[in-house]
Design a protein that fits this description.
424 residues
Length: 424
């Protein structure tokens, strides 16, 4: 009887442990799902109508669609054949042996049964890519803010073709020996810039984690030893202010997609100046500030957003205004509007520069100071960019504007006292 009681007690304990283990497994599983949903939350959307109404071309791709939002649109169909050509070139290429050995060590291609020195079968690589994209399809769909009315096969096909196109494109850009003389993408500099601008538009993005998974599976040529992030930065570096050496120190900065990566490299490196007020203050234009006794000077910095104020001197990093600057800023601002990022530094910068460059005289002053660099028709870009943009209480430069206005009041009081004393 005692033995039966003891064995029953042990069984009860074992059952209790099993229930606890099962509860832990369920809890861990639910936490993992929550973390997945957070890490792959919506980051790609259509630009709000109030922003795009007058400037459709700044947000809509002109030559190539990337991702599902503009896929199949008539003006972009000519590039589809080029995408498939690039996909075939990428999958058929012999990889560098070092990269291939790493893939085998990581068991990324453990089902292929070949030696590192052998050329992988393109069909088998294609199959592995499709399997991987199927696995991450739900997370990839979650990155888009709207419900995508696409069958699973169609969605995976779009992801695969567009990922392979982008990878082959950046490889050919960086490794010039991979290009063919008749490659239409590289025959026209103007056409190439239009395509590059298409790849940074908010509505024309693909999740970076999807691109990275495909990059890990496809064969990379011997001539390339760069990571995907390094290739991306080399491809877009002409759109990112600053020199390459300084940017290379920040290669660890990643993002959710190409536009997000570019935004990360635009972000200010100086600490934010704290503000005491809820509502941001406007400041006078550059010429008015100069008349009030302020100095406006260019300053070397790692970010064009590193605007500073010190004892009557407004220090502004120079910015090279080019034909693509408006498109870049419009899409960066749209991204901040969508994500509701605290302090909105890109939008705050554009609005501040608009205030400083209010008139033609202001623009000429900033050009003489070597703060605004570029052609005359391009330098007034911030006035255009900010037409439909409104700053709320979260301006990144709210503290600096308060300092400038406070200093201006002190200067005015000193001037007023001097005038009053002279008259008396």
């Amino acid at each position: 009887m005692e033995g039966n009681e003891r064995s029953w007690g042990k069984g009860q304990v074992n059952n209790g442990l099993m229930e606890i283990v099962e509860e832990n497994v369920n809890l861990v599983s639910s936490i993992k799902e929550k973390l997945k949903s957070i890490s792959h939350s919506p980051c790609i959307c259509r630009v709000p109508e109030e922003l795009r109404r007058k400037h459709v071309g700044a947000y809509t791709p002109e030559t190539v669609s990337i991702g599902p939002l503009h896929h199949g649109q008539r003006p972009l169909l000519d590039m589809e054949n080029q995408k498939w050509y690039y996909l075939n070139s990428l999958l058929s290429r012999k990889p560098n042996e070092e990269g291939l050995e790493k893939c085998v060590e990581n068991q990324k291609w453990d089902h292929l049964n070949y030696l590192p020195s052998q050329k992988p079968n393109p069909e088998e690589i294609l199959e592995r890519c499709v399997e991987s994209l199927r696995e991450f399809e739900k997370q990839a769909r979650n990155c888009y803010a709207e419900q995508l009315d696409l069958e699973s096969d169609e969605f995976v096909r779009i992801m695969l073709v567009d990922c392979c196109f982008i990878i082959e494109l950046v490889l050919r850009y960086v490794v010039k020996g991979l290009r063919r003389k008749d490659d239409p993408i590289f025959t026209s500099n103007e056409g190439f810039w239009v395509l590059r601008c298409d790849l940074i538009k908010l509505e024309n993005q693909i999740p970076l984690f999807v691109l990275q998974h495909v990059f890990n599976l496809v064969p990379i040529p011997n001539q390339c030893t760069y990571t995907l992030i390094e290739l991306t930065l080399l491809f877009f570096k002409k759109m990112i202010p600053g020199n390459l050496e300084l940017l290379q120190e920040r290669y660890s900065l990643e993002g959710k997609h190409f536009l997000d990566i570019i935004r990360n490299y635009y972000l200010p490196t100086k600490p934010i100046v704290k503000s005491r007020k809820l509502v941001p203050e406007n400041i006078y234009s550059a010429t008015k500030l100069q008349k009030m006794g302020f100095q406006v000077k260019p300053v070397a910095s790692n970010s064009i957003l590193d605007i500073q104020f010190d004892k009557g001197v407004i220090k502004i990093p120079h910015i090279q205004i080019q034909s693509h600057t408006e498109i870049v800023f419009r899409n960066l601002i749209a991204l901040e509007e969508f994500n509701e990022v605290c302090s909105n530094p890109i939008k705050s910068y554009a609005l501040l520069m608009r205030s400083l460059a209010e008139t033609i005289k202001d623009v000429k002053l900033l050009q003489r100071k070597r703060i605004l660099l570029g052609k005359k028709e391009d330098v007034n870009v911030f006035k255009k960019v900010c037409e439909e943009v409104v700053m709320k209480e979260d301006s990144y430069y709210k503290g600096i504007c308060e300092q400038i206005n406070g200093y201006g009041k002190i200067k005015w009081r000193i001037w007023y006292r001097k005038v009053t004393c002279r008259e008396s």
